[in-house]
Amino acid sequence: MAEKICVAVRVRPSISEESPSGTFWKIEDNRISLHKLHGTPISGLSYAFDHVFDESCSNSKVYELLTKDVIHAAVDGFNGTAFAYGQTSSGKTFTMNGSLNDPGIIHRAVNDVFQKIQMISDREFLIRVSYMEIYNEEINDLFAVENQKLPIHESLERGIFVAGLREEIVNNAEQVIKLLESGEVNRHFGETNMNARSSRSHTIFRMVIESKGIDTGSGDYSSSDAIRVSVLNLVDLAGSERIAKTGAGGVRLKEGKYINKSLMVLGNVINKLSNGAKQRAHIPYRDSKLTRILQTALGGNAKTSIICTVAPEEVHVEETKGTLQFASRAKRITNCAQVNEILTDAALLKRQQLEIEDLRRKLQGSRSEVLEQEILKLRNDMLKYELEREKLEMELEEERRSHKEREQRIRDQQLKIENLSSLVSDGDRSSSQDSMKESPKDECNDFKTPCFKETSNNAFVAKRSNYSELPDFSPLPDSFSNVADEDTWFKMNKGYIADLDSLQTTPARKVQSFPPQDITPDCSNDNYKLELQNLKTQLELVIKEKDELQRKHEEVQINRRLVGEISELKQELDLSNNSLESSEQRYGNLEREFQKLKDERDSLLQTVSESSKNITFLTDQKENILKDLNSEVQRRKDLEAEIKQFSVAFASRQRSLASIHGEFKSKIEKLRAENLVRY
Ligand code: ADP
Ligand code: MG
């Protein structure tokens, strides 16, 4: 059933503090329009969509209103795509990846898919995921960094697919979230300016959902029902601004500095698709990797929703208008989605059916978690094996192609040789007849050989080096036709250009080949012989060249083997170099540490010697002090002895004084008594 692509616009919160000076975007229901500052709408700049989300709208609401139906339909077997389009920093990644508090569409979709399939008990599901990035028109695998520059292939069974892209079979949402996180790490790998990269690259997260009905009553897994296969793409596009903006003021760089080719082609594709069925004749999906991958989503069997993110600031008004115009055109596109049911081996469920049944039988009676784990492991192993085989097939195909090219080149050379040989044999015949015939005119007519004549404008020209004197003439066979320019000659020879001066045996002469009717009577036998010799030399050269080519062909085979061996050796060498480098690093570190320790030891020794000097000094001082102390002690002892002697002397003196005093006192008393008697 034909249905329109669902288109919504989401305005992110304003980042700048500045209030608008002239215009602002007004949102009413599902309409967004540019207004003058005082409220009047600007005519021609009002757009209506399926939804218009204002800056307060959460990812949860966007998911509920815009994407949920697409996701649920994918579980039911419809292809689905949701992508975010808009200028850099308008909120695409915020919408698709979200934040911790408000997970984005991808997380919600993954959770929703697993929740939904758990509620469907009568179907068995097989889900696999992949994650890729398109950067500068190259597809890189975000689940496996080694898978770079992957090609897009198309087959009847698989439709359009990225060859060699890793796919992981998953059982629950947590596994997918973990894988996505590892993918993000790969995206950051080796990239210094992540913002610059993300504004120029597209990421496509893809889920392939396969399901088949099971007979729940008997638990019969071999039900032969058709298998539903749907592909769900969740895409975070590169920044849609066509011109680089720099600085806070958004100074515009010159147009055309960097235009993202995929986005340009996406715009063209949307334009053509929106022009209705009449002009749908040629849609240039093949002009870019992105549109080729999203071909079904854009113009075919898919349910698609586009969220166009815009920035509200006045400085971005032109970009916002551009985004809204893109959104308006996208809204006119009609798709025709239908459930994809297939019976062939294109479904992985079908391809793996026998092995899984076998495993189920073997593990009968095991716990269901064990069984689930084992099945998941087996499925992933088988898928890896398939992908590996696909990769090898691609390489083989490549090898076949180059082999064919080489063979073609050899065939071309052989053709050339045959042409020349036939020419030479003609020449031989002509020279033998020449000996019998007299008339130069007859000779020319009979044998149709080249003769000497002024050049005509439409003759072959082979490359001639600068010092060649006669640039207008060259000894070339007629059998190639006489109308060709240098370029055609180059192509016919597959890149081989005869340098006339390398034909040393033949000096540059005025030689020109012409069809028989052009033959003039002034052909001479001598000249003809020379011409013949010339051709013979050329034939020899070509034969040599052929041998050389064959030799080279063998060499190429040997080289290829050698290259393989060399690359293995290189890998080994790289490994040893790496380990050598790391040991060198370790050695350097150890040496540095050793030097540090040596320095420390030296400074310690220095300190020790200074300390020991100090100690000697102090010991000397102590000894001196001790000596001083001893002499002091001695002096004190002497003094004490003297004091003792002195006190003994003093005591005896005191005693004698006391006795003198006593005597004196008694004498005074006696005298006093005598005086009293007298008076
Ligand atoms: P884009 O992927 O388009 O370049 P981002 O999603 O990285 O832009 O958004 C740029 C900045 O704006 C981020 O810091 C993001 O968190 C913020 N942002 C974008 N949209 C919203 C929104 N609706 N609500 C809150 N913040 C948002
Ligand atoms: Mg982004």
Give the SSE map.
Layout: E1 2-4, E2 6-11, E3 23-28, E4 31-36, E5 41-48, E6 51-53, H1 59-75, E7 80-86, H2 92-97, H3 105-119, E8 123-135, E9 138-141, E10 152-155, E11 159-162, E12 168-170, H4 173-188, H5 194-198, E13 201-213, E14 227-236, E15 245-246, E16 251-252, H6 261-274, H7 289-293, H8 295-299, E17 303-310, H9 317-331, E18 334-336, E19 341-342, H10 348-362, H11 368-436, H12 440-447, H13 486-492, H14 525-678
The structure holds adenosine-5'-diphosphate and magnesium ion (MG).
Binding site for ATP: 86-93
Pfam families: Kinesin (PF00225)
Coiled coil: 349-416, 525-642
Would you kindly provide a written description of the structure presented here, covering whatever features stand out?
The protein is of the alpha+beta class and 679 residues long. It has two domains: 3-215 and 223-349, Kinesin (3-Layer(aba) Sandwich); 366-423 and 541-644. Helix content is 52%, strand content 16%. It is built from 14 helices and 19 strands. It has helices at residues 59-75, 92-97, 105-119, 173-188, 194-198, 261-274, 289-293, 295-299, 317-331, 348-362, 368-436, 440-447, 486-492, 525-678, and strands at residues 2-4, 6-11, 23-28, 31-36, 41-48, 51-53, 80-86, 123-135, 138-141, 152-155, 159-162, 168-170, 201-213, 227-236, 245-246, 251-252, 303-310, 334-336, 341-342. The strands form five sheets. Strands 2, 6, 7, 8, 9, 12, 13, 14, 17 and 19 form a ten-stranded mixed β-sheet that branches. Helix 3 (105-119) packs antiparallel against helix 4 (173-188) and helix 11 runs antiparallel to helix 14. The longest helix has 154 residues, at 525-678. It is elongated and about 195 Å long. The structure holds adenosine-5'-diphosphate and magnesium ion (MG). Residues 349-416, 525-642 form a coiled coil. GO terms for molecular function: ATP binding; kinetochore binding; microtubule binding; microtubule motor activity. ATP binds at residues 86-93. It comes from Gossypium raimondii. Residues 426-446 have a biased composition (Basic and acidic residues).
